[in-house]
Amino acid sequence: MFFQSFGKYILLLKAVFRRPEKWSIYRKEILKEMVAIGVGSLGIITIISVFLGAVTTVQTAFQLVSNLVPRSVIGTIVRDSSILELSPTISAIVLAGKVGSSVASQIGTMRVTEQIDALEIMGINSPGYLILPKIVGAVTMIPLLVIISIALSITGGYFAGSLSGAVTAQDYVYGITTDFIPFTFTVCMVKSVMFAFIITTISAYQGYYTSGGALEVGISSTRAVVISCIMILCADYVIAQLLL
Amino acid sequence: MIEIKNIHKAFGDHQVINGVSATFHPGITNLIIGGSGSGKTVLLKCMVGLHEPDKGNVVYDGRNFTRMNFEERIAIRKEIGMLFQGSALFDSMTVEENILFPLNMFTKQSAQEKLERANFCLERVNLAGKNHLFPSELSGGMKKRVGIARAIAMNPKYLFCDEPNSGLDPRTSIVIDELIAEITDEYQITTIVVTHDMNSVMGIGEKILYLYEGKKWWEGSNDEIITTKNQELNDFIFASKFMKALKK
Hints:
Chain A has 244 residues and is mainly α. Helices cover 85% and strands 0% of the residues of chain A. Chain A contains 8 helices and no strands. In chain A, helix 1 crosses helix 5 (126-164). Helix content of chain B is 40%, strand content 25%. In chain B, the strands form 2 sheets. A 6-stranded mixed sheet of chain B has the order 6-7-8-3-9-10, sandwiched between helices. A 4-stranded antiparallel sheet of chain B has the order 2-1-4-5, with helices on one face. In chain B, strand 9 and strand 10 (215-220) form a beta hairpin. Chain B is globular and about 55 Å long. The A-B interface holds A 21-22, 25, 113-115, 117-118, 120-124 and B 48-50, 73-75, 77-78, 80-82, 84-86, 88-91, 101-102, 104-106, 154, 160.
């Protein structure tokens, strides 16, 4: 069953990357998807990122009981955990829920209402037309969202630390500007591109092979989110193991 | 002309189509009729390549569609128009964008020429001026007519209609049937209509193929169908009280 599904997934990806019928139409679709995924997800990413940074600051300060450890370490921990784990992974899991379910239900509805058959009959490569713009839109916009998330998370930590008195502004800024390893940012970008690919392709696969009606579209959408989340966590571990 | 030769199709152990062969000529309305589950839609989908037949061939004017690769099939599909049971309009697009879609994708016409073609198709189905409505704003009959307009936008050589009357009132059904018959005659298209609507059979069935349990059970015209001695076909045609009364 797993190998059968994996084989279908690979064949679908092969069809997705066939030469587009007309680049100008695909370009328009890619821009639409970039707006939908990027601008459409900015609100939720802003909210979760600010709170992630704030909570990380307060909880790190709570655990930092030794006077031998400088308080500036809080800033360093917030920065590194935001870059390496919290911003890419938590953002990806939230986006799996928001973008993934939308992709699966959109394509699934097109499948059960014969709109995909209509594309095929016209001579259009339906996986390419429907899925490629979503993949390109996601792999370009999700890394940008993750960069914004990192900035907001560190800012959230700054305000939470200052307002609660857990760490002074000077200590926090010293912490986030000390001992920065640029490679952690590379790892973060590799993760976010990978996660974007996982979210769109798995969700599109679930939607594309939906059969039945409204109930099955709902099931595909749920399955898309669950499988995407699991695969994101697996990929997170593999990337960390390979790159760090 | 479309020829189907010895088509077989099964899903698991269930044999849906069992050795069906037929020839469909251009300029006349070819009907495939049969009860629910008789394999009409599966046969239609085998003909257009949405299902792969397990055995047999589909030949479009001498070109064997079944044996073609992806690129060769695309060329044939550009000559095909299809009206789906649920219309299958793209619900994120307006009526005009639905009709323009294949033109934008495959032609190098100017924007003005494409718009003129879309307006012509809309006029042809009596929907002039409805360009900017979304499918959700249309009635069932209007959706079918937009479906026909989109299907004829690329000047197809072959038109397939999957239950064009389903969910429509009798008067709108007749309008859709007449439109299909007119377009077929006007452009000399090879048209194949899958239906179980007896009004369509009597109204536009110039050539009728009756499927029963996945097999070709009877073939003829709407003049011949009334006098047929075929028991299963008689049971199908005269199932309703109205048709029984008409026979008497």
